[in-house]
Write a structure and sequence with these properties.
Number of helices: 15
Mean pLDDT: 85
Largest sheet: 6 strands, mixed
Structural class: alpha/beta
Distance between the termini: 44 Å
Helix content: 55-70%
Oligomer: single chain
Shape: elongated
Radius of gyration: 25 Å
Order of helices and strands: EEHEHEHEHEHHHHHHHHHHH
Strand order of the largest sheet: 1-6-2-5-4-3
Length: 328
C-alpha cells in the first residue's frame, strides 16, 4: 500500500515514488496520469528509462509548447541517471515548468541519494512504495485492497488469500478485485477457498498447518500436490519453519498473557494466536528443536545441498508431524 508522505495533489509539479515494489510504483504513475488526463484528455505522457534521459532531453521535453499542452514525464530507476542528467534535473526542480508533472521513481538507498534529497527539498509529493518482504506486510496489503474496493473481508479470508497466492502483489490485487466483483456480502475464508481451492491447498502453509498438528499422511499428500503444481521448494521450507517457529514463540510466552499483547509482542494477528494455541498441543521444547533441525536440513537440501529435494521435504514433514505427537 503506497503511503503518501507529502501533498496529496496528484498534479503537483513533482511526484517522487520511493521504493522497489513494482506494483506500487506503477500505481503511483497511473494515479498521476489519470489525474492529468482528467484535467486534460490530450495530456502527453512520456515514460522514460534512465538511458533515454540524456543531457538535453529534459530541456527538450519541458520546453514551452505552442499549444501549452499538459505533460506527464515519468523517469524510472532515477537512481541510475548519469551525473550530468542529475545536474540538469536539479536545475529544473528549482523552476519547474507549468502544466508539466514530473514523476521520479527512485529505489531509495544510497545510490542516487543526491537526487532524492534534491527532490524532497524541492517539496515533492512523495509516495512510499517499499518492497513487501514480510507476510504481515502482504496481509496488511490485502486488507487495504478490500477496504479500498469498498468490501469487508474477515481476517481469516485475508490470510487464506495470502497463503494461497504467496508474495506476488499483482496477483493478490487481482484476486481481491475478482472476489469483490464476483461475490456479495462479507468475504470470508470459505469464499476464498472456493475460488482458490486448488492453489490454496497446494501451498507450503497448508502443508505446514497439517504437519504441525501431527497429520503426516495429509501433509505428505498436500506436499506432493504442491510440488506437482509448481510451488517453489524454498517457499515450502519457509512455511514449515514459520509454522514451527510460531509454536516455539508462543510456547515460550508467559502463560495467561493477553492475546492482544501477545499478538503485538510476537508479530502475529490475534486470530493467529488462537490457531497456534490449538496447534501447539502435544509440542515440547525438545520437539520444537528437533523440528527446526529437520527444516534446516531440508532447506539446505532444496538450495543445492542434496540430491533429492522432494525427499528432503517429505522427511522434514514426517519429522515435524512426529514431533507434534511426541507428548501425545
Amino acid at each position: 500500500m503506497a503511503k503518501k508522505t507529502a501533498s496529496d495533489d496528484l498534479l503537483a509539479p513533482l511526484t517522487l515514488a520511493v521504493g522497489q515494489e513494482e506494483l506500487l510504483l506503477d500505481r503511483a504513475v497511473r494515479e498521476v496520469v489519470a489525474a492529468a488526463r482528467g484535467a486534460d484528455p490530450d495530456t502527453d505522457v512520456r515514460d522514460l528509462a534512465p538511458e533515454a534521459l540524456q543531457p538535453g532531453t529534459l530541456a527538450e521535453l519541458t520546453s514551452p509548447s505552442l499549444f501549452a499542452e499538459r505533460k506527464v514525464i515519468t523517469v524510472r530507476n532515477a537512481q541510475d541517471l548519469s551525473a550530468d542528467t542529475v545536474k540538469e534535473l536539479k536545475a529544473y526542480l528549482s523552476a519547474p515548468a507549468e502544466e508539466i508533472t514530473l514523476v521520479l521513481l527512485h529505489a531509495g538507498g544510497a545510490k542516487g541519494k543526491a537526487l532524492l534529497d534534491a527532490a524532497r527539498k524541492a517539496g515533492a509529493r512523495e509516495v512510499a512504495c517499499p518492497k513487501m518482504t514480510k507476510p504481515a506486510d502482504r496481509l496488511a496489503f490485502v486488507r487495504t485492497e478490500f477496504r479500498t474496493l469498498g468490501r469487508a473481508a474477515t481476517p481469516e479470508a485475508a490470510q487464506a488469500l495470502v497463503d494461497a497466492l504467496g508474495s506476488d502483489l499483482r496477483e493478490l490485487a487481482s484476486a481481491c478485485a475478482q472476489l469483490v466483483a464476483d461475490t456479495d456480502g462479507t468475504i470470508d475464508e470459505p469464499v476464498v477457498r472456493r475460488y482458490y481451492t486448488g492453489r490454496a491447498e497446494a501451498t507450503g502453509f497448508e502443508v505446514a498447518d497439517l504437519a504441525v498438528t501431527g497429520r503426516a499422511a495429509e501433509a505428505l499428500e498436500r506436499l506432493r500436490w504442491a510440488l506437482a503444481v509448481g510451488q517453489p521448494a524454498p517457499g515450502i521450507t519457509f512455511a514449515l519453519a514459520s509454522g514451527v517457529r510460531a509454536i516455539g514463540k508462543l510456547a515460550s510466552a508467559p502463560r495467561g498473557a493477553n492475546p492482544g499483547q501477545l499478538a503485538r509482542d510476537l508479530g502475529m494477528p490475534p486470530w493467529k494466536i488462537d490457531r497456534v494455541r490449538q496447534q501447539m498441543r502435544g509440542w515440547s521444547a525438545d520437539a520444537v528443536s528437533v523440528a527446526l533441525r529437520a527444516v534446516a536440513e531440508a532447506d539446505a537440501a532444496v538450495k543445492g545441498g542434496g540430491a533429492d529435494p522432494a525427499y528432503a521435504l517429505e522427511k522434514a514433514v514426517v519429522t515435524i508431524a512426529r514431533a507434534a505427537r511426541a507428548r501425545g
